[in-house]
Amino acid sequence: MIKLLCGTKGSGKTKRLIDMANSEMKSGNGNIAFVDVDDNHIFSLDYSVRLINAMEFNINNIESFYGFLCGIIGMNYDVEKIYVDGIYNLIDIKIENLESLVKSLETISKKFNTDFYIGLDYTVEEIPTSLKSIVEEVAEE
After folding, report:
1. Angle between the 62-75 and 95-112 helix axes, to the nearest 10 degrees?
2. What separation in angstroms does the CA of 5 have from each of 53, 76, 92, 111, 121?
């Protein structure tokens, strides 16, 4: 499963992703990785959630981002959920590339039974119609 959490800067995407990861960990739902562009949330995440700083891995385009996510799964086939926050600060995820990324992630999601939750700085209106069913809007509280 792939879920895109969309909202403008400051809408609460990070908090929502952290809350989701912590809730899943408390429910005992397997190995969870949280990919971010810094280590700022290390104390916000449950100690069992694996925080990975993507800035340390030379991710410079959407293809290397996909390869990076595959590498996480390849290292540990028990990873059930991968949460991604702030990746738009590292690479330019263009709307036209989003459908291709989601299609690729759906393939590995099914093959390895891994769910992906990705925060994006786009509004629901900007997301292609073909992806609307996997979008969750995060509105400012």
Report:
1. 10
2. 19, 25, 16, 23, 9
Summarize pLDDT for 36-55 with one digit per residue, the tens: 988 887 888 988 899 999 99
Residue type, 40: N
Q: How far is CA 39 from the centre of its chain?
A: 15
pTM: 0.92
Parallel/antiparallel/unpaired status of strands 79-84 and 135-137: unpaired
CA 19 to chain centroid, in Å, comes to 13
Taking the C-alpha atoms of residue 19 and residue 35, their distance in angstroms, rounded to an integer, is 14
Q: Which of 93, 69, 63, 66 is nearest to 82 (CA)?
A: 69
